[in-house]
């Protein structure tokens, strides 16, 4: 009986294919590369990632919210007073999401 249930679940998932493709899940903003200094201000680029390993069927791909940048304030962080060693900024306010699409 248990085997029939498991096989039925797999058959359902195979038959529906992209049925869950439009379901967006929350991701995680991650700093992408070094920040750019602009006088006393700075700009940090952020990449949206799922934050976890995502298994998906062949013929599909994982899509994320496009990269975004945020502006911040330079901090010397113990260096010369006019240096910019840390960009004090947070992640974008827009939500980071990922979802599955058919290729």
Question: What is the residue-mean pLDDT, rounded to a whole number?
Answer: 85
Given the structure, what is the number of helices?
1
Q: Which residues form runs of ≥5 with pLDDT under 50?
A: 4-19
Helix/strand class? mainly beta
Largest sheet: 5 strands, antiparallel
Report the portion of residues in β strands: 35-45%
- Radius of gyration equals 21 Å
Q: What level of helicity do the residues show? A: 10-25%
In words, what does this structure look like?
With 103 residues, the chain is mainly beta. The protein has one domain. It has 1 helix and 8 strands; from the N terminus they run H-E-E-E-E-E-E-E-E. A hairpin with a 2-residue loop joins strand 3 and strand 4. It is elongated. About 16% of the residues have low confidence.
Summarize the structure.
With 103 residues, the chain is mainly beta. The chain contains one helix and eight strands; from the N terminus they run αββββββββ.
């Amino acid at each position: 009986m248990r085997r029939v249930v498991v096989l039925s679940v797999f058959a359902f998932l195979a038959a529906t294919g992209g049925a869950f493709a439009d379901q967006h899940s929350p991701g995680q903003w991650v700093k992408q590369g070094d920040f750019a200094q602009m006088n006393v201000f700075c700009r940090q680029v952020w990449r949206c990632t799922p934050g976890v390993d995502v298994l998906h069927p062949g013929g599909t791909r994982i899509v994320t919210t496009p990269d975004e940048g945020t502006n911040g304030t330079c901090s010397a962080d113990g260096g010369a007073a006019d240096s910019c060693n840390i960009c004090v900024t947070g992640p974008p306010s827009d939500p980071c999401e990922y979802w599955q699409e058919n290729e």
